[in-house]
Amino acid sequence: MHSKMRKVPLLVGIAACLTIGLAACAPGGSTATSTASLGSVSKTVTKDKITLTEWDQNTDGGSDTAQKELNAAFEKKYPNITIKRVSQSFSDLKTTLKLALSGNTPPDVVQANQGYPDMGAFVKGGLLRPMDDYAKLYDWTSYYPSSLLKLNTFSSDGKTWQTGNLYGVSQTGELVGVYYNKAILDQLGVSAPKTIDDLTVDMAKAKAAGILPLNYGNLEKSPGIHLYGVVQAAVAGATAVDDLVTAKSGSWTDKDNVTAAATIQGWVDKGYINAGSSGISRDASLASFGKGGSAFYVDGTWQQQTLESDMGKTAVGFTTLTPVGASAPVTEGGEGLAWAITSKSKHADAAAAYIDFITNAKAAQTLLDTGNLPAVLPTGYSPTSGTLAADIADQYTEISKASTVVPYLDYTTSTFYDTLTSGMQNLVGGQATPEQFTQSLQTDYEAFTKDRG
Amino acid sequence: MSTRTNAAPPAGTVDARARRSRQGIAARPAGTASRRARRGRRDLKGYLYVLPAFALFAVFLGVPTLQTLQYSFYDWDGISQATSAGLSNYVGVVTDTALSSAFVHAAVLMIFYSAIPVVLALALTLIVSRAHALRGMSFFRTVLFLPQVIASVVVASIWVSIYSQNGLFNEILRAVGLGDLAKVWLGDYGTALIAIGFVGTWLNIGLCLVLFVSGVGNIQPELFEAARLDGAGPVREFFGITLPALRGQIAVALTLTVVSALKTFDLVYITTRGGPGDSTTVPAFEAYNRAFNQGQVGSAAAVAVVLTIVIIIVTALINLLQPKDVE
């Protein structure tokens, strides 16, 4: 009897724990109403001693230098403000930002990735502050072309992208394209490819000459997005891809999308892409291209500084591909992650002043000086012709003017990053046919659009 | 009577306890009603001593575990309001091929992390234990144990380079004239999982060997002498004496290695990110990926709960191997 009595409190305790744990309200809590009252905004920054915490992903050589310089200049201008910088790689930021934002003391300024999986989810949770008032105050609306601004807008329920409130502005411009080794192309007697067919022909020549046509390292899985993105954009064109990613119309199983997949698999079959790409890191393939290991390399403009220092400013070129019948090149890209203010930040005015400081025309010059591509090129900017910087600036200007940049494909749904990257490994590894690959994308897409209602 | 016993000086209690432990199990059945009462009070006091440790456990392990259990019954993106999902996340663990194949991969890894190291380590023990008083044994023990001590990120990075196109492994193949077999081992659908498994073998074999060799050291030498007098050869001796005596160590080795196989995350994360395709995903990696990258916290929690249950069942089964008299 005695021993039974002893067990009673224990049982009650366990039962209480379980009840508290399981019957508590559903996780997530109430959604913050961030749009309720934002208060008045001002360019005048507080004179109090404050610390602004910013989270960025500028870890690559050039962008890291630029960020350090800009932060130091800001602290010099506002001696009462200390910038606390937390910098981590893109994928680390992607995994930790959600946790940081949902805490009670989130950073003041964060770089949020565009599209449904990140910015959409943050907006839905009321974690980001709408910045339309600051856009007016700092005249961002006329500084940025509308094509770039709309990538950073969301409906206030986070369900529709590219419309509604502005949630951030971007510091850098981005294009994904084809880097080429000028010495190798000279040796082959070909000029920089302008279309996907040009590229295929050039790669055949490289292969025949015993040179690896395309270096491709995809251990991290994300380079697969860019390879498919570049080929798909050049095959299907700007409107089709844009409509797909923004869930307006079209199907991933449309003919052009299958053709793009078949083109890539054709390259693999003909040996234009190195074998074992899923076991080779992006950095390893970048380094190999930088040492003259292949004729071509597909990646974003953010590799400019690395390739310049590996190969020299004039030994490497950058090109983008024009679809058949189109007047301007079409490729994946847009702008760097959006600099946003968190809803819970107590220093919104200072945060906005900081964001303006690191993205304005003066900052653009700093970015150029450190080997980065600013979102808006300063008027009258003319880099030395024949350099990689000039190639990138020319392509960026042309594509911006024609509005033919298509969004990153992983923005499509909250699980698309995984579906697309695994699918690309399967496609390149010969484990899936182009039809199976595009079907897997379509299945993910349909589930998402159904969920969204 | 009962009151008097309860008020007995602590010295008596200590004495009784000491005597009982000396007498071992035999003392237990001799308990009387009064003794039970006294033990009851002492047990309550005992709980007080355990309380700080228990509080720590409850806050840092208990609560998160219950929370995970709770999340697994919801559809939640990690930020906005969750909606109840019933058992659908658990159904998904079975029906979603991405998840069920992750558990299959973990089972394959168990062979490489656990079965092969234990068998190889036993074979090595057979040889090593013949070398009486090997000079510098502690040095070798350290070397064998080294893989366990190195940070797993470092281990994984080293093996990525070994398995690469121009890595050590392919160079060796080329050196012995098997250059045609050379490939990026982690990038191939047929070999990526085995390549990761082999890293596990390399990691765990030292652990097993160190455990077994120290176990052999505990066997009374007279047993071997007696066996030899009876004319037993080394193999007989191994199966007759060493192997049964090592049952405890084998159970410990199996538990540690099987659990390490089931909860593998770091190796997969660094070497393949679950690729190529989904050919090397494991449950822990899926749980991480779903919770932090894909915004499917409910599904991730369900995977974690199932993984925990599988680990508990497997370790319980292995514990059956543990000799009953060793505690």
Automatic annotation (TrEMBL), chain A:
Signal peptide: 1-25
Pfam families tied to this protein: SBP_bac_1 (PF01547)
InterPro entries: SBP
Keywords, alphabetical: Signal, Transport
Gene3D superfamilies: Periplasmic binding protein-like II
Family the UniProt entry places it in: Belongs to the bacterial solute-binding protein 1 family.
Name by which UniProt lists this protein: Extracellular solute-binding protein
UniProtKB/TrEMBL annotation, chain B:
Gene3D superfamilies associated with the record: MetI-like (1.10.3720.10)
TM segment ranges: 46-66, 102-127, 139-162, 189-213, 300-321
Topology in the lipid bilayer: Multi-pass membrane protein
Keywords: Cell membrane, Membrane, Transmembrane, Transmembrane helix, Transport
Record carries keyword Metal-binding: no
InterPro entries, A to Z: ABC_transporter_permease, MetI-like, MetI-like_sf
Compartments where found: Cell membrane
Lineage top rank: taxon: Bacteria
Main subcellular location: membrane
Protein name per the record: ABC transporter permease subunit
Phylogenetic classification of the source organism: Bacteria, Bacillati, Actinomycetota, Actinomycetes, Micrococcales
